[in-house]
Amino acid sequence: MTPAPFGARLDDVVVRFGAQRRLTAEGSTIKDEGGTALDGVTLDLRPGVITGILGRNGAGKSTLLSLLAAFNRPTEGTVRVGAGDLLEEPWENPWVTANVQFVRESGDLMDDERVSETFKYYADLRPYWDADLAGRLLDTFEIQPRKKPTQLSRGKRSAVGATIGLAARAPLTILDEVYLGMDAPTRYAFYDEILADYAEHPRTILLSSHLVEEVERLFEDVVVLHRGRVLLAEPAEEMQSRGFSLTGPVAAVDELARGRRELHRQRLGATVQVTLEGAPDDGATAGARAAGVEIGSLPLQDLFVRLTQDGGSGASSTAAEAGTSAREGRR
Amino acid sequence: MFDGPEPIYVQIARMIRAQVLAGELAEEEQVMSTTQFATTFRINPATAAKAFTGLVDEGVLYKRRGLGMFVAPGARERLLDEHRKAYFDEVLAPALAQADLLGISTDELVSYVLGTNGHRPTTTTEES
Fold it and tell me: Are both B44 and B61 inside the same structural domain?
Protein backbone atom coordinates (compact mmCIF):
# COMPACT_ATOMS: atom_id res chain seq x y z
CA MET A 1 0.00 0.00 0.00
CA THR A 2 1.24 3.44 -0.84
CA PRO A 3 0.50 6.12 1.75
CA ALA A 4 -0.39 9.68 0.79
CA PRO A 5 2.75 11.71 0.14
CA PHE A 6 3.64 14.44 2.61
CA GLY A 7 4.01 18.08 1.72
CA ALA A 8 5.51 20.85 3.81
CA ARG A 9 5.11 24.56 4.39
CA LEU A 10 7.52 26.97 6.04
CA ASP A 11 6.53 30.50 7.02
CA ASP A 12 9.10 33.17 7.90
CA VAL A 13 11.40 30.57 9.36
CA VAL A 14 14.52 31.78 11.12
CA VAL A 15 17.10 29.49 12.68
CA ARG A 16 19.84 31.04 14.78
CA PHE A 17 22.60 29.29 16.58
CA GLY A 18 23.47 30.80 19.93
CA ALA A 19 26.87 32.23 20.81
CA GLN A 20 29.04 29.68 22.54
CA ARG A 21 32.04 29.86 24.83
CA ARG A 22 34.90 27.64 23.89
CA LEU A 23 38.05 26.65 25.75
CA THR A 24 41.29 27.13 23.83
CA ALA A 25 44.36 24.94 24.16
CA GLU A 26 45.98 27.68 26.27
CA GLY A 27 43.19 27.53 28.80
CA SER A 28 41.50 30.83 28.04
CA THR A 29 37.95 31.03 26.80
CA ILE A 30 36.83 32.64 23.57
CA LYS A 31 33.32 33.42 22.43
CA ASP A 32 32.09 32.12 19.11
CA GLU A 33 29.60 34.40 17.46
CA GLY A 34 26.18 32.87 16.92
CA GLY A 35 25.17 32.47 13.32
CA THR A 36 21.96 32.65 11.33
CA ALA A 37 21.43 29.44 9.38
CA LEU A 38 18.01 30.34 7.96
CA ASP A 39 16.98 33.94 7.61
CA GLY A 40 13.28 34.26 6.83
CA VAL A 41 12.41 31.24 4.72
CA THR A 42 8.90 30.98 3.32
CA LEU A 43 8.48 27.94 1.15
CA ASP A 44 5.94 25.41 -0.09
CA LEU A 45 7.14 21.90 -0.82
CA ARG A 46 4.71 20.08 -3.09
CA PRO A 47 3.64 16.59 -2.08
CA GLY A 48 4.43 13.70 -4.40
CA VAL A 49 7.25 15.24 -6.38
CA ILE A 50 11.02 15.00 -6.37
CA THR A 51 12.39 18.37 -5.33
CA GLY A 52 16.04 19.33 -5.66
CA ILE A 53 17.43 21.37 -2.78
CA LEU A 54 20.45 23.24 -4.09
CA GLY A 55 22.80 25.66 -2.43
CA ARG A 56 26.44 26.26 -1.75
CA ASN A 57 28.16 25.10 1.40
CA GLY A 58 26.57 26.77 4.41
CA ALA A 59 23.53 27.97 2.46
CA GLY A 60 21.19 26.38 5.01
CA LYS A 61 20.16 23.21 3.15
CA SER A 62 20.77 20.77 5.97
CA THR A 63 19.24 23.11 8.56
CA LEU A 64 16.10 23.43 6.44
CA LEU A 65 15.85 19.68 5.94
CA SER A 66 16.45 18.93 9.62
CA LEU A 67 13.48 21.14 10.55
CA LEU A 68 11.16 19.01 8.45
CA ALA A 69 12.40 15.86 10.16
CA ALA A 70 12.10 17.41 13.63
CA PHE A 71 15.83 17.09 14.22
CA ASN A 72 15.75 20.78 15.01
CA ARG A 73 13.15 23.48 15.63
CA PRO A 74 12.97 27.01 14.26
CA THR A 75 13.99 30.02 16.35
CA GLU A 76 11.15 31.96 14.72
CA GLY A 77 8.41 31.16 12.26
CA THR A 78 6.43 28.00 11.67
CA VAL A 79 7.09 24.66 10.02
CA ARG A 80 4.24 22.37 8.99
CA VAL A 81 4.49 18.87 7.55
CA GLY A 82 1.76 16.43 6.57
CA ALA A 83 -0.60 14.98 4.00
CA GLY A 84 -3.40 16.84 2.24
CA ASP A 85 -4.90 19.54 4.43
CA LEU A 86 -3.56 17.95 7.58
CA LEU A 87 -0.30 19.75 8.21
CA GLU A 88 1.23 19.57 11.66
CA GLU A 89 4.26 20.88 13.48
CA PRO A 90 6.96 18.19 13.25
CA TRP A 91 8.62 18.83 16.64
CA GLU A 92 7.87 16.00 19.11
CA ASN A 93 5.11 14.81 16.78
CA PRO A 94 5.13 10.99 16.50
CA TRP A 95 2.89 10.97 13.41
CA VAL A 96 5.25 13.23 11.50
CA THR A 97 8.50 11.68 12.70
CA ALA A 98 7.33 8.15 11.88
CA ASN A 99 6.53 9.22 8.34
CA VAL A 100 9.61 11.29 7.61
CA GLN A 101 12.85 9.55 6.71
CA PHE A 102 15.80 11.92 6.88
CA VAL A 103 19.06 10.45 5.64
CA ARG A 104 21.99 12.66 6.43
CA GLU A 105 25.35 12.57 4.80
CA SER A 106 26.68 10.91 7.96
CA GLY A 107 24.25 8.03 7.39
CA ASP A 108 23.15 7.89 11.04
CA LEU A 109 24.17 4.24 11.29
CA MET A 110 24.82 2.31 14.44
CA ASP A 111 28.56 1.96 14.04
CA ASP A 112 29.16 -1.02 16.29
CA GLU A 113 26.16 -3.03 15.10
CA ARG A 114 25.78 -5.05 11.96
CA VAL A 115 23.95 -3.38 9.06
CA SER A 116 21.25 -6.02 9.49
CA GLU A 117 20.68 -4.77 13.07
CA THR A 118 20.33 -1.18 11.89
CA PHE A 119 17.75 -2.42 9.40
CA LYS A 120 15.77 -4.19 12.13
CA TYR A 121 15.67 -0.91 14.02
CA TYR A 122 14.31 0.90 10.95
CA ALA A 123 11.82 -1.90 10.27
CA ASP A 124 10.27 -1.13 13.69
CA LEU A 125 10.47 2.60 13.21
CA ARG A 126 9.07 2.95 9.70
CA PRO A 127 5.51 1.79 9.05
CA TYR A 128 6.10 1.24 5.32
CA TRP A 129 9.57 -0.34 5.55
CA ASP A 130 10.14 -2.81 2.70
CA ALA A 131 12.65 -5.47 3.80
CA ASP A 132 12.77 -7.06 0.34
CA LEU A 133 13.74 -3.77 -1.24
CA ALA A 134 16.36 -3.20 1.46
CA GLY A 135 17.88 -6.61 0.75
CA ARG A 136 17.84 -6.09 -2.99
CA LEU A 137 19.48 -2.67 -2.71
CA LEU A 138 22.25 -4.07 -0.51
CA ASP A 139 22.90 -6.64 -3.25
CA THR A 140 22.96 -3.87 -5.86
CA PHE A 141 25.45 -1.87 -3.80
CA GLU A 142 27.41 -5.05 -2.97
CA ILE A 143 27.18 -4.70 0.79
CA GLN A 144 27.04 -7.67 3.13
CA PRO A 145 24.46 -7.15 5.88
CA ARG A 146 26.78 -8.98 8.33
CA LYS A 147 29.28 -6.12 8.14
CA LYS A 148 29.39 -3.28 10.63
CA PRO A 149 29.50 0.27 9.28
CA THR A 150 33.04 0.70 10.65
CA GLN A 151 34.14 -2.10 8.30
CA LEU A 152 32.72 -0.31 5.28
CA SER A 153 34.27 2.34 3.05
CA ARG A 154 32.84 5.87 2.97
CA GLY A 155 31.00 5.16 -0.25
CA LYS A 156 29.52 1.90 1.05
CA ARG A 157 28.33 3.62 4.23
CA SER A 158 26.62 6.20 2.05
CA ALA A 159 25.01 3.36 0.08
CA VAL A 160 23.63 1.90 3.33
CA GLY A 161 22.13 5.34 4.03
CA ALA A 162 20.65 5.42 0.53
CA THR A 163 19.19 1.95 1.08
CA ILE A 164 17.53 3.04 4.33
CA GLY A 165 16.20 6.17 2.62
CA LEU A 166 14.50 4.20 -0.15
CA ALA A 167 13.43 1.09 1.77
CA ALA A 168 11.68 3.23 4.42
CA ARG A 169 9.19 4.27 1.69
CA ALA A 170 8.40 7.23 3.90
CA PRO A 171 5.74 9.69 2.64
CA LEU A 172 8.48 12.31 3.04
CA THR A 173 11.93 11.04 2.12
CA ILE A 174 14.85 13.40 2.60
CA LEU A 175 18.21 12.52 1.09
CA ASP A 176 20.78 15.07 2.17
CA GLU A 177 23.99 14.68 0.18
CA VAL A 178 23.68 10.96 0.50
CA TYR A 179 26.00 10.33 -2.45
CA LEU A 180 29.22 11.33 -0.63
CA GLY A 181 32.07 8.93 -1.26
CA MET A 182 30.09 6.90 -3.80
CA ASP A 183 31.89 6.27 -7.06
CA ALA A 184 30.17 7.28 -10.30
CA PRO A 185 28.66 3.85 -11.15
CA THR A 186 27.23 3.60 -7.61
CA ARG A 187 25.79 7.10 -7.84
CA TYR A 188 24.07 6.32 -11.12
CA ALA A 189 22.75 3.06 -9.70
CA PHE A 190 21.41 5.12 -6.79
CA TYR A 191 19.66 7.59 -9.15
CA ASP A 192 18.14 4.70 -11.10
CA GLU A 193 16.83 3.11 -7.91
CA ILE A 194 15.31 6.41 -6.77
CA LEU A 195 13.47 6.81 -10.09
CA ALA A 196 12.34 3.19 -10.32
CA ASP A 197 11.01 3.07 -6.76
CA TYR A 198 9.50 6.54 -6.95
CA ALA A 199 7.63 5.60 -10.13
CA GLU A 200 6.19 2.52 -8.41
CA HIS A 201 5.56 4.17 -5.06
CA PRO A 202 5.05 7.91 -5.56
CA ARG A 203 6.11 9.93 -2.54
CA THR A 204 7.73 13.22 -1.70
CA ILE A 205 11.48 13.12 -2.13
CA LEU A 206 13.79 15.99 -1.24
CA LEU A 207 17.24 15.53 -2.66
CA SER A 208 20.15 17.81 -1.90
CA SER A 209 23.29 17.54 -3.96
CA HIS A 210 26.26 19.51 -5.19
CA LEU A 211 26.45 17.37 -8.32
CA VAL A 212 23.88 19.49 -10.11
CA GLU A 213 24.59 18.16 -13.59
CA GLU A 214 24.09 14.58 -12.49
CA VAL A 215 20.77 15.08 -10.78
CA GLU A 216 19.01 17.98 -12.50
CA ARG A 217 16.79 15.76 -14.64
CA LEU A 218 15.52 13.90 -11.61
CA PHE A 219 13.84 17.02 -10.29
CA GLU A 220 10.30 18.16 -10.87
CA ASP A 221 10.77 21.18 -8.58
CA VAL A 222 13.94 22.99 -7.61
CA VAL A 223 14.71 25.15 -4.57
CA VAL A 224 17.87 27.25 -4.51
CA LEU A 225 19.01 28.46 -1.09
CA HIS A 226 21.65 31.09 -0.58
CA ARG A 227 22.88 32.48 2.74
CA GLY A 228 19.84 31.23 4.57
CA ARG A 229 17.31 32.60 2.10
CA VAL A 230 15.30 31.16 -0.75
CA LEU A 231 16.62 32.51 -4.04
CA LEU A 232 14.36 30.46 -6.25
CA ALA A 233 11.63 27.87 -5.82
CA GLU A 234 9.91 26.73 -8.99
CA PRO A 235 9.31 23.78 -11.32
CA ALA A 236 12.53 22.58 -12.97
CA GLU A 237 10.93 23.24 -16.34
CA GLU A 238 10.50 26.93 -15.57
CA MET A 239 14.03 27.13 -14.29
CA GLN A 240 15.19 25.52 -17.51
CA SER A 241 13.46 28.21 -19.53
CA ARG A 242 15.46 30.95 -17.81
CA GLY A 243 18.26 30.51 -20.28
CA PHE A 244 19.78 28.66 -23.21
CA SER A 245 23.13 27.95 -24.73
CA LEU A 246 24.67 28.75 -28.11
CA THR A 247 27.49 26.73 -29.63
CA GLY A 248 29.30 27.70 -32.80
CA PRO A 249 31.91 29.97 -34.41
CA VAL A 250 32.99 32.78 -32.06
CA ALA A 251 31.94 35.69 -34.30
CA ALA A 252 28.50 34.26 -35.04
CA VAL A 253 27.84 33.38 -31.40
CA ASP A 254 28.97 36.82 -30.20
CA GLU A 255 26.65 38.45 -32.71
CA LEU A 256 23.67 36.43 -31.47
CA ALA A 257 24.61 36.87 -27.82
CA ARG A 258 24.87 40.62 -28.02
CA GLY A 259 22.76 42.46 -25.46
CA ARG A 260 22.09 39.34 -23.41
CA ARG A 261 23.44 38.51 -20.00
CA GLU A 262 26.05 35.81 -20.22
CA LEU A 263 26.09 33.13 -17.55
CA HIS A 264 28.95 31.05 -18.77
CA ARG A 265 31.47 30.91 -21.60
CA GLN A 266 33.61 28.03 -22.68
CA ARG A 267 35.97 28.22 -25.61
CA LEU A 268 37.37 25.34 -27.59
CA GLY A 269 39.58 26.57 -30.43
CA ALA A 270 37.46 28.50 -32.89
CA THR A 271 34.24 27.22 -31.32
CA VAL A 272 32.63 28.81 -28.33
CA GLN A 273 29.73 27.81 -26.11
CA VAL A 274 27.94 30.51 -24.17
CA THR A 275 25.06 30.18 -21.76
CA LEU A 276 22.68 33.13 -21.87
CA GLU A 277 19.80 34.36 -19.77
CA GLY A 278 16.33 34.57 -21.26
CA ALA A 279 14.64 32.63 -24.05
CA PRO A 280 15.76 32.60 -27.67
CA ASP A 281 13.29 34.65 -29.74
CA ASP A 282 12.30 33.67 -33.27
CA GLY A 283 14.88 36.00 -34.78
CA ALA A 284 17.67 34.44 -32.75
CA THR A 285 16.52 30.94 -33.65
CA ALA A 286 16.46 31.71 -37.36
CA GLY A 287 19.73 33.63 -37.12
CA ALA A 288 21.40 30.76 -35.29
CA ARG A 289 20.26 28.27 -37.89
CA ALA A 290 21.53 30.44 -40.72
CA ALA A 291 24.90 30.99 -39.04
CA GLY A 292 25.46 27.36 -38.16
CA VAL A 293 25.08 28.00 -34.43
CA GLU A 294 23.47 25.28 -32.36
CA ILE A 295 20.94 26.24 -29.70
CA GLY A 296 21.02 24.03 -26.63
CA SER A 297 19.37 23.76 -23.24
CA LEU A 298 20.44 25.66 -20.17
CA PRO A 299 22.73 23.70 -17.92
CA LEU A 300 21.22 24.16 -14.47
CA GLN A 301 24.73 24.26 -13.07
CA ASP A 302 25.49 27.51 -14.94
CA LEU A 303 22.35 29.18 -13.64
CA PHE A 304 23.05 27.91 -10.14
CA VAL A 305 26.61 29.24 -10.14
CA ARG A 306 25.41 32.59 -11.46
CA LEU A 307 22.61 32.89 -8.90
CA THR A 308 24.69 31.98 -5.90
CA GLN A 309 27.65 34.10 -6.78
CA ASP A 310 27.98 36.87 -4.22
CA GLY A 311 27.68 40.50 -5.13
CA GLY A 312 27.73 39.67 -8.79
CA SER A 313 25.71 41.73 -11.17
CA GLY A 314 26.42 41.15 -14.80
CA ALA A 315 28.45 38.24 -16.07
CA SER A 316 31.77 38.12 -14.34
CA SER A 317 34.61 35.84 -15.19
CA THR A 318 34.43 34.32 -11.71
CA ALA A 319 31.11 32.68 -12.48
CA ALA A 320 32.45 31.37 -15.74
CA GLU A 321 35.56 30.00 -14.11
CA ALA A 322 33.67 28.42 -11.25
CA GLY A 323 31.36 26.71 -13.72
CA THR A 324 34.23 25.45 -15.80
CA SER A 325 36.28 24.13 -12.93
CA ALA A 326 33.24 22.47 -11.37
CA ARG A 327 32.61 20.70 -14.63
CA GLU A 328 36.15 19.69 -15.29
CA GLY A 329 36.45 18.33 -11.80
CA ARG A 330 33.61 16.01 -12.51
CA ARG A 331 34.70 14.58 -15.83
CA MET B 1 20.24 12.53 -25.08
CA PHE B 2 17.65 15.33 -25.01
CA ASP B 3 20.14 18.20 -25.09
CA GLY B 4 18.06 20.54 -27.22
CA PRO B 5 16.83 23.94 -26.05
CA GLU B 6 13.21 22.86 -25.57
CA PRO B 7 11.86 21.26 -22.41
CA ILE B 8 12.74 17.57 -22.23
CA TYR B 9 9.11 16.49 -22.60
CA VAL B 10 8.94 18.27 -25.96
CA GLN B 11 12.05 16.40 -27.07
CA ILE B 12 10.68 13.06 -25.89
CA ALA B 13 7.46 13.69 -27.82
CA ARG B 14 9.51 14.53 -30.90
CA MET B 15 11.51 11.32 -30.54
CA ILE B 16 8.37 9.21 -30.33
CA ARG B 17 6.83 11.01 -33.31
CA ALA B 18 10.02 10.36 -35.29
CA GLN B 19 9.88 6.67 -34.37
CA VAL B 20 6.28 6.41 -35.49
CA LEU B 21 7.11 8.28 -38.67
CA ALA B 22 10.03 5.97 -39.44
CA GLY B 23 7.89 2.94 -38.76
CA GLU B 24 10.09 1.86 -35.83
CA LEU B 25 6.99 2.04 -33.70
CA ALA B 26 4.13 0.32 -35.52
CA GLU B 27 0.49 1.21 -35.05
CA GLU B 28 -1.07 -0.60 -32.10
CA GLU B 29 2.41 -1.25 -30.74
CA GLN B 30 3.04 -0.59 -27.06
CA VAL B 31 5.26 2.34 -26.11
CA MET B 32 7.69 2.21 -23.18
CA SER B 33 6.04 3.04 -19.86
CA THR B 34 6.80 6.26 -18.00
CA THR B 35 8.75 4.20 -15.50
CA GLN B 36 10.85 2.61 -18.24
CA PHE B 37 11.37 6.02 -19.81
CA ALA B 38 12.39 7.53 -16.49
CA THR B 39 14.94 4.86 -15.67
CA THR B 40 16.25 4.47 -19.23
CA PHE B 41 16.94 8.18 -19.70
CA ARG B 42 17.32 9.11 -16.01
CA ILE B 43 14.56 11.67 -16.04
CA ASN B 44 11.69 12.39 -13.70
CA PRO B 45 8.70 10.14 -14.53
CA ALA B 46 6.47 13.22 -14.60
CA THR B 47 8.51 14.54 -17.52
CA ALA B 48 7.82 11.39 -19.54
CA ALA B 49 4.16 11.43 -18.50
CA LYS B 50 3.83 14.99 -19.77
CA ALA B 51 5.18 13.96 -23.17
CA PHE B 52 2.65 11.11 -23.32
CA THR B 53 -0.25 13.40 -22.40
CA GLY B 54 0.66 15.69 -25.28
CA LEU B 55 0.91 12.79 -27.72
CA VAL B 56 -2.47 11.47 -26.62
CA ASP B 57 -3.98 14.91 -27.28
CA GLU B 58 -2.40 14.90 -30.75
CA GLY B 59 -3.82 11.47 -31.46
CA VAL B 60 -0.41 9.83 -31.87
CA LEU B 61 -0.83 7.62 -28.81
CA TYR B 62 -3.79 6.29 -26.91
CA LYS B 63 -4.11 4.79 -23.48
CA ARG B 64 -5.40 1.33 -22.73
CA ARG B 65 -6.50 1.21 -19.15
CA GLY B 66 -4.18 -0.83 -17.00
CA LEU B 67 -2.01 -1.79 -19.95
CA GLY B 68 -0.20 1.37 -20.98
CA MET B 69 0.32 3.56 -24.01
CA PHE B 70 -0.08 2.37 -27.60
CA VAL B 71 0.45 3.93 -31.01
CA ALA B 72 -2.91 5.08 -32.36
CA PRO B 73 -4.27 3.66 -35.62
CA GLY B 74 -3.62 6.08 -38.48
CA ALA B 75 -0.99 7.93 -36.44
CA ARG B 76 1.74 7.47 -39.05
CA GLU B 77 -0.43 8.73 -41.91
CA ARG B 78 -1.38 11.82 -39.94
CA LEU B 79 2.23 12.53 -39.00
CA LEU B 80 3.39 12.05 -42.59
CA ASP B 81 0.78 14.51 -43.70
CA GLU B 82 1.79 17.13 -41.14
CA HIS B 83 5.49 16.70 -41.77
CA ARG B 84 5.06 16.99 -45.52
CA LYS B 85 3.30 20.29 -44.99
CA ALA B 86 6.05 21.52 -42.67
CA TYR B 87 8.91 20.29 -44.86
CA PHE B 88 9.05 23.31 -47.16
CA ASP B 89 8.85 25.91 -44.39
CA GLU B 90 11.01 24.25 -41.82
CA VAL B 91 13.57 22.27 -43.81
CA LEU B 92 13.82 23.56 -47.34
CA ALA B 93 13.42 27.30 -46.72
CA PRO B 94 16.39 27.53 -44.29
CA ALA B 95 18.51 25.41 -46.67
CA LEU B 96 17.69 27.74 -49.54
CA ALA B 97 18.40 30.78 -47.38
CA GLN B 98 21.79 29.32 -46.59
CA ALA B 99 22.41 28.66 -50.31
CA ASP B 100 21.55 32.28 -50.99
CA LEU B 101 24.01 33.40 -48.32
CA LEU B 102 26.73 31.27 -49.87
CA GLY B 103 26.01 32.57 -53.37
CA ILE B 104 24.84 29.25 -54.75
CA SER B 105 22.69 29.95 -57.76
CA THR B 106 19.23 28.57 -58.41
CA ASP B 107 20.59 26.80 -61.51
CA GLU B 108 23.15 24.97 -59.39
CA LEU B 109 20.48 23.93 -56.92
CA VAL B 110 18.16 22.73 -59.62
CA SER B 111 20.84 20.71 -61.35
CA TYR B 112 21.81 19.23 -57.97
CA VAL B 113 18.24 18.16 -57.32
CA LEU B 114 17.94 16.72 -60.81
CA GLY B 115 21.23 14.90 -60.40
CA THR B 116 22.72 16.47 -63.53
CA ASN B 117 25.68 18.06 -61.85
CA GLY B 118 27.84 15.02 -61.31
CA HIS B 119 26.19 14.48 -57.91
CA ARG B 120 23.78 11.79 -56.92
CA PRO B 121 21.56 13.61 -54.49
CA THR B 122 20.05 10.51 -52.96
CA THR B 123 23.36 9.22 -51.70
CA THR B 124 25.65 12.22 -51.24
CA THR B 125 25.82 13.89 -47.87
CA GLU B 126 26.96 17.28 -49.05
CA GLU B 127 27.38 20.03 -46.44
CA SER B 128 24.58 22.50 -46.80
Answer: yes
